[in-house]
Design brief:
This protein is mainly α. Among the domains are: 1-114, no CATH class; 118-217; 698-826, no CATH class. The chain is built from 45 helices and six strands. Helix 5 packs antiparallel against helix 6, helix 20 runs antiparallel to helix 21 and helix 34 runs parallel beside helix 36. The longest helix is centred in the last third of the chain and has 17 residues, at 720-736. The protein is elongated, with a radius of gyration of 38 Å. The chain starts with a helix and ends in a 6-residue tail after the last strand.
Length: 832
Amino acid sequence: MASLWEVSFVVNYHTLYKVKHYNRVHRRLFTNFNRGQNSRWITRLGDSKNNTYRCDLIACASLLQTCKDVRSINQVHAQVFIAGLYQNIFLGSKLVNMYAMYSSMDYGRQVFDRMPDRDVCLWNVLIRGYARNGPCEEALALYYQMQEHGVQPDKFTFPFVLKACAELSALQQGKKIHEDIVGRWFEKDIYVGNSLVAMYAKCGKIDIAREVFNKMSERDVVSWTALIDGLAQNGNDSEALILFDQMVESGFEPNQVTLLCVLQACGRLGALQQGEWIHDKIIQRGLLSNVKISNSLVAMYAKCGNVRVARQLFDSMSRTDLVSWNSMIAGYSQNGHASEALELFQQMQLANVRPCSLTMVSLLQSCAHLIDLGKGECIHAYVVRSGFLSDIVLTTALVNMYAKCGNIASARDLFAIMPRRNEVCWNAIIAGHVHNGEYNEALTFFNQMQLTDVKPNHVTMIGILPACAHLASLNQGKVIHGYIIKSGLESDVLIGNSIIDMYNKCGSLCSSREMFNKMFQRDVVSWNTIISGYGIHGRGEDALALFSQMQQTDIKPDFITFICVLSACSHAGLVEKGWKYFECMDLEYGITPNSQHYACIVDLLGRAGYLDAAKHFIEKMPGKPGASVWGALLGACRIHHNILLGEWVAEHLFHLEPDKAAHHVLLSNIYAAAGRWGNVSKIRTLMKVKGIKRSPGCSLIHVNNKIHSFIVGDTSHPQSVQIYEMLRTLTREMENAGYVPSTNLVLHDVEEEVKEHMLYSYSHSEKLAIAFGLISTSPGMPITIIKNLRVCIDCHDATKFISKIVNREIILRDSNRFHHFKDGSCSCRDYW
C-alpha cells in the first residue's frame, strides 16, 4: 500500500501533466531520442531497453535542473514515482541534491532511505546536504553508517565530513577522521588538505592547521584563505596579514573570500595603510560593485577611524543592503559621531530599509554617547514594537543606554526582566552603577553575579575595581584581587592598572607598589597610575624617582604623565623641580602643555606662596586661561589670605562658570578668614538668588563590610548617642593637650555662620566618622575616612590631636589628596 508521502507525489504528478511546459520538454526529448541525439545519455543513465523508460529518465533529470523551489521539485518527483524511476540511483542522487540545495533535508533523506542500492556518490550527496544545511551531527552519523554498509568513503566524502566537524567544533572526531584520511592516502589531495586546515582552524587549533598547511605538497588560493581566515578568527589578525603578504609574494591572486577575511583583520587591527592597499587591488580587479566587498571596505575604514572615506564609499555604492547601512551607522557610532549616526538612520528609514537589532544597538550607543534619553526612549519603544526585546545584545545595549543617560532605575528594571543574562549583561549593570556613583550597589550586583553560573571576566574586574576605589573599600578590593589571582587574570595589563589605582585610592600605597613591581608587562598607564598614587599621598620625591625609572624604559611619557608629575611636585612643594619638568615637556618630549599642565604650575607656585609669579604666569599663557587655571590661583589666595587677588580671580571664574558653587565658597572662605562677614553674607545671598547649591559635606567609613555615611550635625545614625559622647570625650582630651578650635572660616558643609559650639556639638562629618570608627573597631586598628570635599583646617588640626590621643593611624582621603595622621602629625606636613 502506498504511503501518504507517495500519494502526495501522485497528486503532484497529475498537476504536472497539466503544465504545457513539461509536455513540450517531454515531446522534444522523445523526438531527440528517436533521432539518436541522446544515445550517450541513454547508455550512461539507463540500463533498460525500453525507450520510454530512458526518455522519461532524461526528461526528469533535465526538468530537475529547471526547478526553482521545493514545490517544483515535488512535481518532478511525482513524475519519477509514476514512471517507476524512483529506484534509479542517478535520479535519486539528483533529487537528494536538489532537495539539499533548497534546504529540504527531510524529503532528501526519504528519497535516500528508499533507494535499494546506494553508491558512494549518493552517500556523499546526502552527507554534503547535512553538512551545509544541518544538523551536522547527521553528516557525521552517515559517514560511519556508509562504512557499516560496506561503502568506503572517497576523497569527495572527507571535505563534507570535515566541514561538519568544523561547524560542530568536534575536534576529537575531526582528529579521528584525519587518521582515516592518512590511512587511505588522501592527505595529499588538495581539497582534503584545505578542509583539514579549515576544520582545525575553526576548532581553535591554529597550530595544527598551520602544520597541515606547511605539509601540503600543493596549495591553491583556498588553502591560503583557509589559514588566513583561521588566524583572523582566532584573534591572530597580525599573523593573518603577514600570511596574506606571503600569499601575494608567492604569486597567488586573492579571491573574494580572501579579501573579505583580510579586510576584517585590517579593521580590527586599525591597519589603515594595508586596508588602503587592498582597496586599490579591489578597484584594479573591478570588484567594487560586489556588495559584500564594498560593505567590508566601509566597515574597515570605519573601524580604522576614517569615517570620511567610509561615507564616501557608502554614498558611491550603486546598490546597498541592510549590512551597508549597519556598517556605516556603526562606524559613526564607534568613532564618536553619534549625531551623524542618528541622522543616517533617518535616511535609512526614508530609503525603506527595515532596521535589525544590530542597527538598534548602534543607535543606542549613539544615544548613550550624546546622553540623549529622549531619543533612547524612542528607540526603546521601537524595539518593543518590533519584537526585538528578546535579543540579549539589544537589551544589554538598552541597559547601558539608560545607565549612561543617568536613568539607572530604568536600567535596573530592564535588567530584572531579562530572561537570561550573560557576562556582558552583568558587566553593563555593574558599570552603569559605577558610572552613576552608586558604588555600593555595583558591589551588590557583583556579589549577586558570583552566585550565578555566569563567571566574572576581565571586563567585570575592570568595571568593579573603581567601585572599591571610590569607596576606599580596601577589604572588598583585596577579596576581588584574590579572585583575580585565582582566575588567572592578574597578568592582564588593564586589570593590573585598575588594581594599582584601587590600592592607591584605598590608602594602601605599599600594596599598590607591590602590584606594580609584580607586573610582567607595563604600559604608560601603569607608570602614570603609580606616579599619581605617590603624588596624592604626598610622596613627591618618590613619585619623581619613579618618573626617572620610567625614563630609563622604552615607554615614553605622555601628557597625563606630566600632569601626574607636576601634581606630585605641587603637593610636596617641589617648586624648582616642578618648573624644570614643565620646561622639558616640549623641549625633550615634544608635548605641548595644555590647560591642565598650566593649572598644575599655577597650583605649584600658588601653594608655595608665589602668588605674583602665578599671576604673571597666567598673564603670559598662550590663549585664554580656563577655569581650572583660575581655580588653582583662587585656592592659593584662600591658603595665603590674599583678598584683593582673590576678588580679581573670582571675577574671571564667575564669568567662566557663573553657577559653580565651589568658586563662591572659596571666595566666601577668604572673606570669612579676614572677618569680613558682610561680604560673606553677600556671597551667600548671591548664591541663593542664582539658585546655586553646594554639595553637602559627607564622610564615609567602612566597618564590618558595611558603609556608614555622615553629614554635618548628623543624628540619624543608630549609634548617634555613643558617637557624640565619644566626641565630647575627645574634645576634652584635645583641649587638655592644647587644641584650640579654628572658628575663622566658613566651612564647606556649614550653612550658618561659624559658631564655636557647633564644632563640638553638631560637628563635621569627618569628626563623626572618626568617632564612630573609634567605638566600632578594635584598639590600634587604622581608620580610613573618605570625604567628598576638601578637609577644613579645624578638622585637620583636630585629627592630628586625635591620632596621638588614641594612638591610631587615621587615613583621610578628601577631594584633593590623602592625609595620613599618626602620632599627632600629618603626612602632608600641613602643606595642603
